[in-house]
Amino acid sequence: MSASVVAERAVVVGAGLAGLRGAEALRRAGFTGSLTLVGAEAHRPYDRPPLSKHVLTGAVAADATTLPSFLPLEAEWRLGTAVTGLDRRNGRVRLADGSSLAFDRLLIATGTRARAWPNPHEGRLAGVHSIRSREDATALRTALAAGPRRVLVIGGGFIGCEMASACRTLGIPVTLVEPSTAPLARVLGTHMGDVIGALHTARGVEMRCGTEVEWLEDDGRGRVVRAHLSGGDRIEADLVVVALGAVRNTEWLAGSGLSADAGGLDCDADGYALDTEGRVDARVAAAGDVARFPHPLYDGRRVALEHWSHAVAQAEHAGRLLADRKACSHYAAVPTFWSTQHGINIKSVGLTEGADGLVIAQGSPKEGRFLAVYGREGRCIAALSVDCARWLPAYAAQVAARAPFPPIHGAIDQPEHRPVLPPGFS
To answer: What is the top-level taxon of the source organism (predicted)?
Structure first.
């Protein structure tokens, strides 16, 4: 443990997973000054991944998702109060209730919110939902338990796919509409997206890819009844889930002088926030979904990641950074992600963006159990396992080492032929 830091004030903006783990890391690294956590929601930090899985099926109650705290924080909690601004010159965070908090060290972990349906009137219709908060999950669970005739999921990303899976677990008819030619095509490419799409089709999900929902129709009494697609088709649905991705919560930073936009808050390789001139503010760090930083595994390309394990790792790094500014090296954790769909575990390491090759390294998609590796310019950049996670650590090591692509020859359970396939990124 580093030497104690006394008589200073630390503020953590964002009372979610990253905020909690960052605050704990501050204390663990020796910070003994005052500590305040600010959160727009009224709840103590809770786990979001179960909201789109176990909570929807009724296996877990929404209020049973509170995250454990691993040490006494001795902190003040300001919950149910959003932040509205940052005055860096005077070292103060402004709150929606008109008060402000002074800080010497500031951790920004404001995360994201669900992207709203673009037509506000249609988005307010009864039966139209999104999922991000406990309240969202509770409302959606209640609507699913009422037995809708058909659910329409708009968006084929991870949340949309998990939503479709939950519907089929409950025996509810569901249609998923995705503008790309396959679900998850943006993050996995169309080749693997087609595999995931086939998995959903086999479980009874009606997949409508390569088309878009243009507008939602109400019944004249304020409830959604159908969706109109770009090709002229209509889908009858009395429950619609909008799963169009996330929006980073950076609006409150306007006028602060920090380099932030809808894509995130810019940080340096250590995790310190950058101002609009590219200069470091060593009082301010960021972590989790909102932080956009140069990743050394990807040639310093700036990325902002929305993954649970990343939020934990980066928050712990940022907490140590703010507690002892000389003790930390660059943040370089390999990104990881997982999802459960139709009882199948899907896990990944690394980032697929820019991949120019793909190989099935273990197992077989036809058997429903395989591991695929992505390459770029002759190097391994990512790996994806589908019910084949026991092999993933070996390939994660290959990604971290920037090993030549394709990797690992002569292992058991490998296909006889491993042709390099186009991953299908446009």
So the answer is: Bacteria
